[in-house]
Fold this sequence. Notes:
By secondary structure, this protein is α+β, with helices and mostly antiparallel strands.
Amino acid sequence: AETEGGLVEGSNGALRDPATGRFASNPDRVGPALSDGAHGNSLASSRPTTLYQLEDAETGAHMKFGITSETNPMARYTSSEMEGLRMRILDAGTRADMSAAERWLTERVAGPMTNEPWAGSVNESIFPWP
Length: 130
């Protein structure tokens, strides 16, 4: 279907200028801003962020710490990635605060799923871990 401005709407609602083939903005599809415009992984992002720990579901052994800005933190991983694991929510706050907390924990406790180069770089025990 063609719009007043001569743009063509595709099956997904995207508007395209048939003369140039370029996509055009569709003011009918503009939703509320989800953030302050900063990328979700940026420390400047205002999106709420969750700090979590992955544990072995059977033994409770620490596997890794992580952060996510997913509304549902479990959506961070697929069900196959979570097989044999459980996620424990530790805290929530700004991206910058949760990133700093994740780094602090990971520097002290490296798990087998931890990939950060600084993992385990600080020889300071934080155990017994709750």
